[in-house]
Amino acid sequence: MLVTSPILPDFDDFVEKLKTIWNTRQLTNNGPFVREFEEALAKYLHVPFVSVMANGTLPLMLALKAAGINEGEVITTPYTFVATVSVLKWLGLTPVFADVDPVTGTLSPHEVERMITPRTRAILPVHVYGYPCDVAGFHRLSLRYHLPVIYDAAHAFGVKLDGHSVLEWGDLSTLSFHATKVFNTIEGGAVICHTPEMKHRLDTMRNFGITGETSLDGIGINAKLDELRAAYGLLNLRKVDEAIDARARLWNAYTLALKSVPGLRLPSLADSVDYNYSHYPIYVEAESPRTRDEIFALLKTHDIHPRRYFFPAIHQFETYADVRRSGNLPIASRLSEQVICLPLYPHLPLSTPEKIASILR
Ligand code: T4K
User: Fold this and answer.
1) Confidence at residue 326, expressed as pLDDT on a 0 to 100 scale
2) CB distance 56 to ligand 1 below 6 Å
3) What's the CA dihedral at 284, 339, 277, 360 to 10 degrees?
4) Mean of the pLDDT values across residues 31-44?
5) In the chain, where do the E strands start and end?
6) 135 Cβ partners below 8 Å, 6+ apart?
7) How far is the CA of 196 from the centre of ligand 1 (A)?
8) Mean pLDDT, residues 271-288 taken together
């Protein structure tokens, strides 16, 4: 049993879409399925503009570029997947780490404020596990210091805060549609933006900067999603509500089953949020009779393969040892040493949470 497993479109429906593509031979370059997919996504996510891309890493790069962040420091979280930070280095920007909230694991605006200097150019928080960041706190920082906020929303597909998409917050948000995500296009991703001008800039940038047969607007790159994956995405979009409902049932079953296991901190839910139940992170506390790594190893002996997302925290990798940070980042360090993400995907048997709980008991 793996930590995750993707939802798939109905095979016959996908073959029908492939027939269309075979007939037209329009395989990529902003074809009809990409355009239809972007419209369907904007409608589903309740956001004004979506620019789809080939994976969830390119949107981070293009969002930073499109926001005009060409030099200086970007304050971000060490409690994330490596892509959030590697893109900063890749773009020649300087990452700076601030610590995270002890409950949600999301970047703390208060800690970010302490790290702001005249060299700071942007803030890059992550809605880790689909938990919304303190978006109001970042909005205040953005206004006070005139800094753009770009959210890495790779885990936050469909998440709502107070009834509104969490993607409405910030200057830009980025999504990943990787196979491991709540919603997937195999590989894929998107930038969410709020104006037609920004959508045009992103669409141009993802296609080498081309604006016409003989014209360019700036330096672009190839970040395009192809027609096959856009068609696949259109079909998977029909499945996502059902998938999130199934995830919620499993999530609640985990909470019910695991509350009798000593030494675990279980994730909690806020009433103001419509979650997508992207991950089920448990935190193995000091009073647990077994350590985190003993639990991790024990589950593996039962052919259950959870993951320690996100261990090591990024500041603990040698590659990122030189990144300026607030102290030793005690909270991110502790969460990363305590966390295990348990298997969670829509077609996981509903008996799994109790099975795992009985192994741990
Ligand atoms: N920002 C954040 C916060 C992110 O978490 C990510 C990606 C990104 C940005 C970048 O987005 P992308 O450029 O990746 O779109 C995985 C994913 O590759 C990565 O997308 C994801 N975050 C990260 C958290 O997890 P691995 O190395 O753990 O993946 P892997 O291959 O070990 O897969 C995990 C499990 O999923 C396996 O046990 C089996 C299952 N699986 C996986 C694949 C690929 C399947 O059942 N089918 C599949 O096709 O990184």
Assistant:
1) 85
2) yes
3) -40
4) 98
5) 49-53, 73-76, 94-97, 120-124, 150-152, 160-161, 164-165, 172-176, 189-193, 210-212, 215-216, 264-265, 273-274, 280-284, 324-325, 339-342
6) 151, 161, 166, 169, 170
7) 31
8) 97
Q: Is 2 in the pocket of ligand 1 (CB under 6 A)?
A: yes
Whether 223 lines ligand 1, by a CB cut-off of 6 Å, is no
Contacts of 62 (CB under 8 A, 6+ apart): 51, 53, 191, 202, 205, 206, 221, 223
Distance from residue 213's CA to the centre of ligand 1 (Å): 37
| pLDDT at residue 325 is higher than 90 | yes
Ligand 1 lined by 125 (C-beta under 6 Å): no
Question: Tell me: the pLDDT tens digits for 96-136?
Answer: 999 999 999 999 999 999 999 999 999 999 999 999 999 99
Mean pLDDT of 162-181: 98
Cβ 84 under 6 angstroms from ligand 1 = yes
All domains in the chain, ordered by first residue: 11-237 (3.40.640.10), 240-360 (3.90.1150.10)
- Give the closest residue (by CA) to ligand 1 atom 25: 180
Contact (CB, 8 A) for 212 and 277: no
Looking from the CA of 50 toward its CB, the CA atoms found within 13 Å total: 25
Q: Is the peptide bond before 310 cis (omega within 30 degrees of 0)?
A: yes
pLDDT digits (tens, 9 = 90+) for 62-109: 999 999 999 999 999 999 999 999 999 999 999 999 999 999 999 999
Is residue 4 within 6 Å of ligand 1 at its C-beta? Answer: yes
Among 184, 180, 220, 177, CA closest to 200: 220
* Helix, coil or strand: residue 76: strand
CB 313 within 8 A of CB 336: yes
User: Angle, to 10 degrees, between the axis of helix 227-237 and the axis of helix 11-24?
Assistant: 150
Ligand 1 centroid, distance to 28 Cα (angstroms) = 24
Residue given tokens 């803030």 in the structure block: 123
Would the CB of 77 count as within 6 Å of ligand 1? no
In testing the pocket of ligand 1, which one of 5, 178, 310 has its CB within 8 Å of the most ligand atoms? 178
